[in-house]
Structure formats: C-alpha cells, structure tokens
Specification:
16 helices, Rossmann fold, 13 strands, alpha/beta
Length: about 375
C-alpha cells in the first residue's frame, strides 16, 4: 500500500515551495501518494489558476475554502476544516511549508492526531515577534517532527532551541527549485516589451507588509520616494491587494501618476520582470532569496530578515523603511555601489529531490532505489 503524504498550501508563496516537492514525489509514485490540500487562506481563483498552471501543480485534492479573517479566526477555521481531512485520508506524513497561518494550523492539527509533521523552510528566525510570521515559525518548529532547512542559520537556530541534530536536514531552497524550473519561460516572456521597459532601465517594487502599508504617513513617505525614483528609472509596481486598498483608502493614488502600477502578476510574468531589473525594492521574504540567486541587487525595507544568508552571501541589503534611509540606499546604487553576491550552498535547483529522498527513507522507512 502506498504511503500517503499531504502537503499544505495556504497562500501563493507556498505554491512555489510545494510545486517542486510534488514533482520530486511523483518519481516515487509506486511507493507514495502525494496529495495537496489548499486551505484557501489567501485565494483568488484567477490568480491561483495561473500559478498552478505555471508551476505545473495539479488541482488540490482538497480545498478547504477558509477565507480571510483575524489571525485567530483564520487559524481556528483551518484547524476545524483540516481535522476531518486527516481523519478521513489518514496520511503517514503532513508536510507544511513556510510561515503562514495555514502552516501552524495544519501542523498543530496533525500533531494532535498523532500524525508526524515535516516543516519545509524550518528554523528561519527574524527575532522580531511583532511579525505574525515569526510566531508561526517558532510555534511550528516547536511541534514538528522533521525539519528541512534552507540555510545554515536555520540549523543553528533549531539546535539552540533544542531540536535533536538527527531531525534537522540542510537541503537547500525549494523556492530556488521553482525559479530554476521557470527561468527559461521567464526569459522568453514578452512582458517587458508589452510594458515598454528596457533591461537594466527599470526597478521592480513590491510592498505588502502591514508596517509599511497600513499607516498613511508611512505609506505616503514610501510612495514619495518611488515618485522621485521614477524620474531616474521606470518604476514597475505590481500592487498587492492590501497595498491597493490602502492607497485608495488614504487618498494616495496621485503618487502613482508616473509609476507603472500593475495588478498582481503570475509567477512567470513577475520573474520575467525581476530577471532584467536594475534592482528590486521589496518587503517580501521570498524575493530576497530570488534576487540573491539571480544576482540582482535587492533593497529590503525591513529592519530584520529571517533569511540572513541573503545579506551575508547574496545581493540583499536591509534598509530602514524610512524615506531618508531608502533615498540614501537608492542613491548608493545610482553611484554604482552594488553588492557582488554569490549563490548560497545547495541553492542548486535540487532541494526538493533531496527532501523527497529523506522523507521516504528517513521519515517513512520506504526503500529508495
């Protein structure tokens, strides 16, 4: 009988981590059955269809449809919906990825039912407990059974927190697996021609964190910097729904007059823009990793990062999200002061393959040829 594995996705960043896992497990389809559970934590039908198609993900075996709400409401709804799925499907292992509410909720549900949990992207720490994601990371790692780690800091954090070394596996970064898989399509995509931007002559911006977009003065200050930047480089700004709503609510749309503001983009479209950008300005976690792999300078508008290797080895630079600090960092790039980064060890496009082999052999005791 095949060993059943459930992998949980809840928000779009999870798709890029689970897609390579699904391809890797498919190579062992005589031994395992890998199924995807989508909690619906963040769900837009049109955008989700694009991401699933581009990443070659199958339709989820189960869609919980929990929707939005406060952190407590969302976490509780996911747990209530996921429990009967586990009872009916009886998986040998539940795989959770990243640090969203679905990660913690499904890990907690599975553990209470006696189902082992593997956490992919374990051990990352920003040491900023005002970030909901940090609480999710800490709590998930406190109850998980197996820990798949993207960078050495994750191993150090887990060992310091008392996790036995034999449960920690430094495997590389499945986000980079998805990037490597999609890069040929991205290089052929025509979005740059469609927008009329030239390689190296534009900047890609993403903003979505509450600390940057939920306060009118903070958001106004950042938009003023982008308006100034637009006098030197074309600013391409795909708007996260949260950011779009904040701009409308605070009456700040005039700041977008000279900015190329776009709706949310598919994965390949966004990658196609990022790969030829002069630099990227963001507050995202995953983009810090992607720009490091691509060798594109990245200014991250945060005071901490849970991915320190992107600053130590990569092209990432933390910048206080204050207008003057952001201006100074941009001016330094204009003067040619740019980090020459390198790709971290094991970020080679094969992390998911390593995870699949370890899961089968070590976690499930299934013979791997």
């Amino acid at each position: 009988m095949k060993a059943r594995i459930l992998s949980v996705v809840g928000a779009r960043p999870n798709y890029m981590k689970v897609a390579p896992l699904h391809r890797a497990f498919a190579r062992y389809n005589c031994q395992v059955e890998h199924l995807i559970v989508h909690t619906g934590q963040h769900y837009d039908a049109e955008m989700s269809e694009i991401f699933f198609a581009e990443l070659e993900l199958p339709e989820p075996a189960v869609f919980l449809g929990v929707g939005s709400g406060t952190h407590a409401q969302q976490t509780a709804r996911i747990m209530l919906a996921f429990e009967p799925v586990c009872l009916e499907m009886r998986p040998r292992l539940v795989v959770v990825v990243g640090d969203v509410n679905s990660t913690l909720a499904c890990a907690l549900t599975a553990v209470k039912l006696g189902i082992p949990v593997a956490h992919v992207e374990a051990g990352l720490r920003s040491f900023d407990r005002t970030m909901p994601e940090e609480i999710n990371r800490i709590a998930t790692d406190a109850i998980a059974d197996y820990f798949f780690v993207t960078e050495p800091s994750g191993v150090e954090n887990l060992r310091r927190e008392g996790v036995p070394a034999e449960r920690i596996f430094l495997v590389g970064n499945p986000m980079i697996d998805s990037l490597v898989h999609a890069l040929p399509k991205a290089r052929q995509h025509r979005i740059r021609e469609q927008l009329g931007v030239r390689p190296g002559q534009y900047v890609v911006v993403t903003l979505h964190r509450p600390s940057n977009v939920d306060h009118p003065e903070q958001l106004r200050g950042l938009l003023e910097v982008l308006a100034e930047l637009a006098q030197w480089r074309t600013v391409v700004f795909p708007l996260h729904p949260r950011t779009q709503q904040a701009i409308e609510r605070f009456g700040l749309r005039d700041y977008l007059r000279h900015i190329c503001a776009l709706p949310p983009l598919g994965y390949v479209e966004f990658l196609a823009l990022m790969v030829e950008a002069d630099f990227v300005l963001t507050d995202s976690g995953g983009i810090q990793e992607e720009t490091t792999y691509l060798g594109i300078p990245c200014l991250t508008l945060r005071t901490t990062t849970e991915r320190p290797i992107t600053c130590q080895l990569g092209t990432n630079q933390l910048v206080r999200p204050e207008p003057d600090a952001v201006r100074a960092a941009i001016d330094a790039l204009r003067r040619g002061e740019r980090r020459s980064g390198q790709v971290p060890p094991l970020w080679d496009g094969h992390a998911a393959e390593r995870i699949a082999q370890i899961v089968l052999h070590h976690c499930l005791g299934v013979a791997v040829e």
